[in-house]
Amino acid sequence: MTATTRTPAEIAAWAEQLYYDLDFAAPRAWKERTGGSAIGFMPVYAPREIVHAAGALPVGIVGAGDWLEVIRGDAFYQSYLCHIPRSTIDLAETGRLDFLDGMLFPSTCDVIRNLSGMWQLLRPGAYVRYVDVPQNYVKGVGGTFWEHELRALARELGELTGTPVTDERLRASTALYDDNRRAVRELYALRRDEPERAPTSEVYLVLRAGHVLDVATHTALVREYVAAARAATPPALDNARVVVCGAFCEQPPLGLIKTIERSGCFVVDDDLLLVSRWFSRDVGAAGDPFAALSRAFLEDTVPTAVMYAAEAGRGKALVQRVRAARAEGVIFAAPSFCIPALLDQPMLAAELDREGIPYTAFKYAENTGQFHPIREQTGTFADTMKLWSVA
Amino acid sequence: MRCFVGIDLGSTTSKAVVLDDDGAVLGRGITNSRSNYEMASAVARTEAYVTARFTLFERGLAARLEERPARDRDRLASALKRSFRLQQYLTQLDSLERAAEDELDARRYADRRARVRPRLREVFVRLRDGAPALFGEDAKRKSDFFRDIAGAEYQVAAEEAAHPQDAPFGLLVALYDKAILRVENEQLELGFEANVEPALERVVARADAHVREAARAAAQDAADAELTEVRAVGTGYGRARLPFPRDQIRSEILCHGLGAHAMFPRTRTVLDIGGQDTKAIQVDDAGIVTSFQMNDRCAAGCGRYLGYIADEMNLGLHELGPLAQTAQRTVRISSTCTVFAGAELRERLALGEKREDILSGLHRAIVLRAMSLLARSGGVEEQFTFTGGVANNAAAVAALRDLVAENYGERTLNISPDSIYTGALGAALFALRDVQRTHTTAEVAA
Amino acid sequence: MSTIPPPTRLNPAAQQRDDAEKDRSMVRQKELIAAYYERLAQAPERGEKTVATFVPGNLAELIQCFDLVPILPEINALQSGMRKRSGGFITEAERLGHSEDVCTYVKCDIGMLHGGNIGPTGAPLPTPDLLLLSYTGCFTFMKWFELLREECDRPSVMLQVPYQARGEITPEMKAYVVRQLESEVIPALEKLSGVRFDIDRLREKLELSRRAEDDLVAVLESAKNRPSPIDAYFGGVYYIGPIFTAFRGTEEGCEYYRLLRDEVAQRVNAMRGPTTPEGEVTDERFRLVVEGPPNWTDFREFWKMFYDEGAVVVASTYTKVGGLYDRGFRHDPADPLGSLAEYCLGCYTNLSLPKRVELISDYVREYGADGFLINSVKSCASFSAGQLLILREVEKRTGRAGAFIESDLVDPRYFSAANIKNRIESYLQMVEQKRASGVTS
Question: Which member of A130, A312, A337 has the closest CB to residue C101?
């Protein structure tokens, strides 16, 4: 797509600018350019296809990392609650989110759920919708409810933007997002197969750019990165292969991701920014597009702590992911006070124990400033695994 | 003369303020807190009455020596104060020696009692010899509390007087440690009336007769003045332990609000950062609290945090602020958790950050926590008064000034040199108000 | 001489004099709960099947239709807390790898399970035959039952209750819950019990529920009187005990609420204040609304901090976690599954924040409260996330200042008595001072 060929590091550096831009210049410019609306959404999942079909840009809002001094947001939260809602409120209270024409709060946990109500109180008149995803995965039960939710969202967004979400538009949007998810799957496959080519700190930045870019632009960026990474000649590294688990909502600071890698680990699978690969296969652009999105949600959603498991064996999916990624161990990295991740962890750990898969665990906050203890911990973990694999 | 007393039992210091009928401050007293709250309160109160009588002395002296320059009278009064402090110190040394001797009489020292006693006496001879210099005109003391002054002096004297076999240093120090606890829990005669005469005689011995007589008369009048304590109100963290009836106890929030209002009548927002907690208080134009917030269960961002940092850096608490102010840049610190402070500090140092830059960040981090509390309590209104131990830290004040300006615009920031007495002053004002209100009610009823 | 009234007088003599009368409802309440635990302990022996379920959104009447006995993990945890046993259970769960950051009800339950599943009364609790997750207005519940399922290897059935994000129950939400009842919950209960579902039997039980609910509302609303005859938080948790647990839809439940209502009516006529563990409050000085669950490990000490100051709670949101009957909801024999669905959807923690602000503000006005207090509980984000905004908004709407304290449900490490007492005292003195100076806002 670009005339000149960029190296993977250059692409990542470009994406890093987006990452650090708390003023959201990219989506603001998009609005300016297209005259369209922008709709914010929080983790873990939002039906971006519908937002797109309403002629709006879905913008992922995932806190403010470690580079915003949170004052106003802190005034709303007790010390025993996680950090992402504080910085998110701070972004809003400092006017940084004023470009958004609406905000979606997916049902992730009680904290984000209640944040949807806080938004209504703090920003009277703003468009707010709580996206109540089905925890029942039967077509005629949870599926019916979800399809109705999707249609209601489409109707409201259509009224908001003036662009009604027709079946045709939604099918087109779904096709774009299917393509984007395919590109992301290629990226993850590359990292899984040749992790030295695609460091997670770069993969993360490329993925994260999708939170503020138009879907087609982002798909091109991902493909550009994959091509550049394949063409590059990276140094050979003898790292341990790990799956990072638990960081699906409040994001670890970039420094933390780099710390894990520098301590001797290849992250070969993770649950960062899950929205970008929520479905394990294409939604499909044929037939009723709402029914298709609903079906995909019921059948193809990737396992995560925020979705109820209808059957016992909570940790089996993680074991499968470890096997599929040919990982040697698991790093549980959950945000402090993240209720779903921390309640999930003992069940996952028990299954890993049964399978003899080693793991280590630590907690972080999006503004964690201390990486040294984590480097010690993951470094020791990586060394231990390498010793095991030699023995 | 009718007096109204406020007593603030804090976690590190206990304070008392004495007011007259008009609400003017007659005296203030402070002492270190101790497990015996009743005693801490008694000592602070005695101290407040001592300074109250000094106020009366100064008034009397002014009346009697009207023709002399105020500067001369001030010099005399301040000489008397120093001499008085010396007198109190000597009284406390006597008590300390008695206590140390008694401790030596304990059974466990039986076999070496005879050899230790002369050494112990020598220590006290040295202490008494060194006492006048401590209260000289230019003397600088790190603390005004007997425990601190005597402790430091004793250490030096004991090192000199100790003998490896007869009376090892450690043993002498052990005697002190036991004795000081007793002294701190003993009701000593440290009042104005009992100590002013010998103190004055030392000062006026060589003065001219007119001055001498005027000073003696003023001291006598000040000692004789009838100070009737009409009512006392207690506050502070230890208030529940005060031997006061329940209706004479007020929360420190209310007292801080009213005290800040008395010091700066246009105050609307008060921030108090103490050792153990932080309070953000909003008051109305009469000093009545309209809302307040205190730090949550975790003590992050309180004065104690700076204490840990000082320990970690091997610095005195009072050295942190000035060092932080030399910073070229402010390192961003995310954790104000006292438990992690040390680790974060070491990591930053290991990364090559400068001490002063880190310290600047730490001060900002503390103030950030306070900013959240202020936001919770309703923001920062004009005028804004900052109290508590951290208000003496220039780096914290600078950070607060910046952050308040950034978030709320320009605000007048008041810091009183007497801010440590804010709570006690508020309590004393409540004592006065209670009585005034009762009178008004009684008059209306009649 | 003083402007501040002397401490509240409690009247132990009055309590003794009326022991027989006062204790009737309390004694009955304790008998009911004891009988429930007794039945639970004997269930395996008697061949009764058990169903683990939660208090909010519980399907008591439906469970009874299949002759099943409910096990209520939250009640077990709070009872363990009141009996000072929760601390050990929590430590045990943390030793097993559960985070210090998560809900202590869950950890108390897991710890109890690992310690032989001895219930709060000292009798062993049966392992549930089915896990019936009937409320999702608290996300932790979903994880809790996933954890229990891993622990005890029993089948589970789940009822997703959509959130009232915009403060209303839409027809689609109701339809979704009813459909889940029909297609998942009822078949699971039929399969477990071998009993066929009889909708008329359900109607009969719902009629009993409705009657008890009328009486409960009368009891709660009696607090509008001055003085209030009840404490609607500390006393309130005893009053809601039977109806929030196993006794909704039963004759015993109905009798209990009739008895309680009569007793409270007599207190109103006699102008008597609420009963406390140390006698009757004879001098109501502060009327408060409380938001948030109580602390259970130090429940008595916590309560004492209020009644020592003459502070009476006239309305609370915690007593609405099992349904907002005072806002008009009733179980309805004419619409059995529909009203069960509305019941689940309408529990307090399923309300949006704006709705919660509205409710608390209304309580402050309707009950003539001097102020309101938020007990922010570490374990329960469903309650706690956003409470500082609730504080601000209710202050704005009512012109009354609020108090904010922090504690936990059953973690004894998280109850700092000195801290909480300091805040409550400071708050009440502030209210007093404002009242004395005629400041209204």
Answer: A337
Measured between beta carbons, the chain B residues lying within 8 angstroms of A67 are: 332
For chain B, the domains span 2-184
The ipTM estimated for the assembled molecules is 0.96
Task: Confirm if C323 and C136 have CB atoms less than 8 A apart.
Answer: no
Q: Give helix then strand counts, H and E, for chain B.
A: 14, 9
List, as ranges, residues 134-153 from C with C-beta within 8 Å of A: 136, 138-140, 142-144, 146-147, 149-150, 153
Please judge whether C147 and A142 are an interchain contact, meaning their C-beta atoms are less than 8 angstroms apart. no
Distances (CA, A) of B236 to A62, A163, B267, B276: 43, 63, 21, 12
Residue C275, CA distances (Å) to C13, C25, C234, C257, C284 in order: 12, 12, 10, 17, 12
- The count of other CB atoms within 10 Å of the CB of residue C331 is 27
**Torsion sign over Cα B23, B24, B25, B26:** negative
8 A C-beta contact, residue B383 and residue B268: yes
Phi, psi of C302 (to 5 degrees): -60, -50
Confidence of residue C157 (pLDDT cuts 50, 70, 90): very high
Residue A202 structure tokens: 């770069």
- List chains touching C (3+ CB pairs under 8 A): A, B
| Nearest residue to B14 (alpha-carbon basis) of B235, B194, B338 | B235
The values of phi and psi at residue B437, to 5°, are -65, -40
User: Between B and C, how many residue pairs show a Cβ–Cβ distance under 8 A?
Assistant: 62
Query: CA–CA separation, A281 vs A177, rounded Å?
Result: 11
Instruction: For tokens 């010899």, name the residue.
Output: B129
Q: What is the pLDDT of residue B240?
A: 75
Rounded to a whole number of angstroms, the distance from the CA of B291 to the nearest CA of chain C is: 6
Beta carbons of A369 and B344 less than 8 angstroms apart = yes
- Find the mean pLDDT for residues A112-141: 97
* Interface check B290 vs C, CB under 8 A: yes
Mean pLDDT of C306-323: 96
- Identify the pLDDT of residue B442: 53
Asked if C158 lies within 8 A of A75 by C-beta distance, the reply is no
One-letter-per-residue 3-state SS of A216-246: HHHHHHHHHHHHHHHHCCCCCCCCEEEEEEC
Strands (E), B341-392: 384-387
A84/C381 Cα distance (integer angstroms): 14
Chain C: give the shortest CA distance to residue A117, in Å: 5
Mean pLDDT of chain C: 93
Residue B341 has pLDDT above 70, yes or no: no
Chain C residue numbers with beta carbons less than 8 Å from the beta carbon of A134 are 160
- Using CB atoms and an 8 Å cut-off, which of residues 246-275 of chain B contact chain C? 246-248, 250-254
Q: Strand B25-32 vs strand B13-19: parallel, antiparallel, or unpaired?
A: antiparallel
What pLDDT is recorded for position A68?
85
CB < 8 Å from A in window 173-202 of C: 173, 175-176, 179-180, 183-184
Give how far Cα A279 sits from Cα of A307, A314, B233, B382, Å: 13, 19, 68, 55
C-beta of residue C92 within 8 angstroms of C-beta of residue C117? no
Distance CA B46, CA B49 (A): 5
Question: In 3-state terms, what secondary structure has residue B172?
Answer: helix
Output b/e per residue, C125-137; b: 16+ Cβ within 10 A: bbbbbbbbbbbbb
List chains touching A (3+ CB pairs under 8 A): B, C
- Cα–Cα dist A240/A249, whole Å: 25
Q: Nearest Cβ partner of C3 from B291, B294, B438? A: B438
- Cα–Cα distance for residue pair A287/A55, rounded to 1 Å: 21
Residue A391 has pLDDT above 60, yes or no: no
**Nearest-angstrom CA–CA distance, B247 and B256:** 18
